[in-house]
């Protein structure tokens, strides 16, 4: 039986908290836990050539050169690249706890598709690495204020077709949005629909359609009227566009079954054929709007992290996610048939100060503690050389990014400041630091502890399981410091989720630093409106300066994702972004 909406919503919020504290940044906010040690907050034991590892072998003509040479009776390596034996299926290995296919977002924590889901599903618009939105299935989109009313207008690309060859129409857009707005729908895409005029009447079953969604079949245009001007509505337009023919006449139980089986039609380059527990298979969509994929199929295998390297060395997969430790060690002894690919980090880790009570409410104390932390050393030495310094709460890729000077590492000055405040070894500054129990936070805690050891500071660690940490910190329990991580998100407006004063802990808010600056709030509110890019950039620039001066957090590092890629798999690139699968329809296999 479904939970009532308020209880279910609170459950979703709780799951989001667990995600955010898990310490693993994978693209689109999805996390996985391997049970061993990695630099991303999961963990891994670097696998040597393990005789106990048994892979599901591909036929010889589908193997990589290293594997084909080992297989008795297999084709010679040179024949693998010949026309008649050219491989048409690429095999990708991901951690075994990589999130399941969930286009309806029934179990999601964030309003984004995973990179694998994007093989099959596409929205009207898509988030870019620079935190701007770009048209996807829409040829154009516009968010504006018209006659005092907030309006979003999208026009479908001409000639769009579903994988079965039937035309995509504005009726599909209406059916999709109204499915996400059903009163019995509890997926992650639900929340923004409340901002549409007439949504509450529709949810109360007093109308057959949402009056604020206006479709024009002749021009293939959809106009959406909002109750207020708010950019946080836009992520709903990145949700999968679904087929009205599949949605009509089905209850949520039927749609949930289709969703979990990967059988809801999408408009991405590959369609899910099988999404069994460990292995997923996708076949090319001949009607993909950007062009016919070069590969005929993709296979995704979810493997234990300690088997990733063995699978790569054995030639069982063409591409695999590897932990920071694996990436560092593979970089020193990389097999000849592989190359390493590293993406930009999709989020950052930081040390947070509690500004509401205690000694960390004093700006001078926060500044002294920050000056005693060496972020370069932490990023380099604690995370196998794979970490990068974080210099603020915005991604360096963001259009709004305006880096502020980091606190200069000066432990002697920090010690003088604390001495002036009356602290000494006999009467130290006693602080409680809370953090979730995972490998990345343990490493960060150890780094902080060692950096402050020469200071008159006593740290009491409160390491908690992720769910207990969420309840402790976001339930407004007493603490002075906390270690945390946050995803960059599709738009800078997500900054409000963490740093606006209205996001109070104990009231389902995420502002664990209890940061409160009236001018900072005003800048965030203003920047969240439908404004030109240059104006938003100016507002966020001013906000970043204020935030840096107030020092509610000390940014520590960003951890990128790394992938080992077979050289025979062509077209895999990141272009300085966070998702290596962005151009998967252009991938090919050959020499």
UniProtKB/TrEMBL annotation:
Question: What's this protein's family per the entry?
Answer: Belongs to the bacterial solute-binding protein 5 family.
Recorded hits in InterPro entries, A to Z, give: Peptide/Ni-bd (IPR030678), SBP_5 (IPR039424), SBP_5_dom (IPR000914)
Keywords linked to the UniProt accession: Signal, Transport
* Example of a GO cellular component annotation carried by this entry: ATP-binding cassette (ABC) transporter complex
Protein name in the entry: Solute-binding protein family 5 domain-containing protein
GO biological-process terms attached to the record: peptide transport
Show the Pfam families listed in the entry: SBP_bac_5
For the Solute-binding protein family domain, which residue ranges apply?
Answer: 134-502
Which Gene Ontology terms cover its molecular function?
peptide transmembrane transporter activity
Q: Does the record carry Cell division as a key word?
A: no
Q: Please verify whether the record's keywords include Signal.
A: yes
């Amino acid at each position: 039986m479904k939970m009532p909406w308020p209880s279910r919503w609170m459950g979703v919020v709780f799951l989001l908290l667990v995600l955010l504290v898990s310490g693993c940044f994978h693209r689109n906010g999805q996390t996985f836990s391997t049970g061993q040690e990695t630099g991303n907050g999961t963990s891994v034991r670097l696998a040597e050539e393990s005789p106990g590892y048994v892979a599901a072998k591909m036929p010889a003509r589908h193997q990589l050169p290293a594997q084909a040479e080992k297989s008795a009776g297999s084709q010679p390596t040179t024949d693998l690249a010949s026309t008649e034996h050219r491989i048409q299926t690429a095999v990708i290995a991901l951690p075994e706890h990589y999130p399941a296919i969930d286009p309806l977002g029934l179990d999601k924590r964030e309003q984004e598709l995973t990179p694998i889901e994007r093989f099959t599903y596409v929205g009207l618009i898509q988030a870019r690495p620079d935190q701007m939105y770009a048209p996807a299935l829409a040829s154009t989109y516009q968010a504006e204020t018209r006659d005092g009313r907030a309006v979003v207008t999208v026009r479908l690309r001409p000639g769009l077709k579903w994988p079965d060859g039937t035309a995509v129409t504005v009726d599909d857009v209406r059916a999709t949005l109204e499915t996400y707005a059903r009163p019995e729908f509890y997926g992650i895409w639900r929340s923004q629909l409340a901002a549409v005029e007439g949504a509450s009447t529709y949810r109360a079953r007093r109308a057959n359609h949402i009056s604020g969604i206006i479709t024009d079949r002749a021009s293939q245009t959809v106009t959406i009227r909002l109750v207020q001007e708010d950019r946080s509505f836009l992520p709903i337009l990145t949700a999968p566009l679904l087929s009205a023919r599949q949605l009509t006449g089905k209850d949520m139980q039927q749609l949930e079954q289709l969703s979990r089986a990967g059988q809801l039609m999408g408009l991405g380059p590959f369609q899910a054929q099988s999404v069994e527990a460990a292995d997923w298979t996708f076949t090319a969509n001949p009607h993909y709007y950007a062009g016919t994929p070069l590969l005929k199929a993709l296979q995704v295998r979810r493997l234990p992290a300690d088997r990733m390297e063995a699978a790569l060395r054995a030639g069982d997969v063409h591409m695999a996610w590897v932990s920071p430790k694996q990436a560092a060690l593979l970089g020193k002894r990389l097999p000849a048939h592989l190359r390493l690919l590293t993406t930009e980090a999709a989020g950052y880790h930081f040390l947070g100060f509690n500004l509401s009570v205690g000694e960390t409410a004093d700006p001078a104390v926060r500044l002294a503690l920050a000056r005693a932390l060496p972020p370069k050393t932490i990023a380099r030495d604690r995370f196998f050389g794979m970490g990068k310094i974080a210099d603020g709460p915005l991604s360096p890729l963001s259009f709004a990014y305006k880096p502020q000077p980091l606190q200069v590492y000066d432990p002697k000055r920090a010690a003088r400041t604390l001495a002036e405040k009356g602290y000494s070894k006999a009467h130290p500054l006693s602080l409680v630091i809370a953090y979730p129990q995972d490998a990345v936070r343990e490493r960060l805690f150890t780094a902080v502890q060692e950096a402050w050891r020469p200071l008159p500071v006593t740290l009491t660690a409160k390491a908690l399981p992720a769910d207990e940490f969420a309840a402790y910190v976001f339930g407004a329990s007493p603490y002075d410091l906390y270690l945390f991580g946050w995803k960059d998100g599709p738009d800078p407006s997500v900054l409000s989720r963490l740093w606006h004063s209205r996001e109070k802990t104990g009231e389902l808010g995420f502002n664990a630093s209890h940061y409160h600056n009236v001018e900072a709030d005003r800048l965030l509110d203003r920047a969240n409106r439908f404004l030109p890019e240059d104006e938003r950039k100016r507002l966020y620039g001013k906000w970043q300066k204020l935030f840096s001066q107030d020092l509610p957090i000390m940014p520590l590092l960003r951890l990128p994702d790394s992938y080992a890629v077979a050289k025979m798999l062509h077209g895999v690139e990141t272009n300085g972004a966070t998702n290596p699968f962005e151009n998967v329809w252009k991938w090919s296999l050959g020499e």
